[in-house]
Amino acid sequence: MVQVVFLKYDGRPHRSYPARWLGEDSDGTWLGVTAGTVARVDGDREAIREEPYVLPGGLTRVALQRGSLVVSSSQGGGSKDTWVLAE
Description:
Low-confidence stretches: none
Mean pLDDT: 79
Number of helices: 0
Strand content: over 45%
Order of helices and strands: EEEEEEEE
Oligomer: single chain
């Protein structure tokens, strides 16, 4: 299992949940989340995933200009590769 962690632009917790490492291929790293998985929302609230899903583990939205809070690609943000470093 791996822990998927999303942080807000200022470093505060956004969402985190356990996922299963499914493997890698030419499209990247793949993670799976089972139905009934409990996610932490905003660091304290819990939300339960009602359906299973698969997600690519290789993309993070980022602000491209130092000090900018904009991460939306439609408003000047961009993306970077993300690596799963530990199981």
